Amino acid sequence: MTASETDDRLSAQFAFLNEADRLKSVLRATTLVDGSRRENSGEHSWHLALYAMTLADQADPAVKIDRVIRMLLLHDLVEIDVGDVPIHSKGGTAHGSTDTQEAEAKAADRIFGLLPPDLAAEFRALWDEFEAAETPDALFAKSLDRVQPVMANLMSGGGTWVEYEVTSEQLDQRVGSKIAKGAPRLWDWVRAKTRAWFEP
């Protein structure tokens, strides 16, 4: 690689890294566990990577935790452009809506497109795999992405469940079904905790 090629590659890598710093400014609906403030998406991504390391024993034996961690570090970068779309939100830009999915795909094109082509393809493939939630790695990553806000809500006195008037049944449908696909034993444990909160 020539000096000019090295310079171009490093410029692209740092352009991506500097852009990724903006994720720290994206506030999520979920609060910190102490309820003192809303977490930002950079904190969420870091916490999920730690969740993957700590809860690796809850994963299917086929799961590669290093890939899960990489997915979790990348999965919310699109929020730089789209913002946080809470899972219990409603309306045209609701979580999982066609509008939201299209906006996130456009953001992924832009953000990963800042990278050198080899890294852009690699990172985008991991993001796409996470979004599709079909492989064992992606299913476990999705499960953790759903578990972390549940635990924050439990620790903060209900958090977004109170704000969005979430019912126990809605939690099962929107969150529990995803967790159970990738970490069924973990959902059994977490569900017992949520039942105690919703049905004291």
From TrEMBL:
GO CC field: cytoplasm
Keywords: Hydrolase, Metal-binding
Domain HD per the UniProt entry, residue ranges: 20-187
Entry GO MF terms: 5'-deoxynucleotidase activity; metal ion binding
Name under which the protein is recorded: HD domain-containing protein
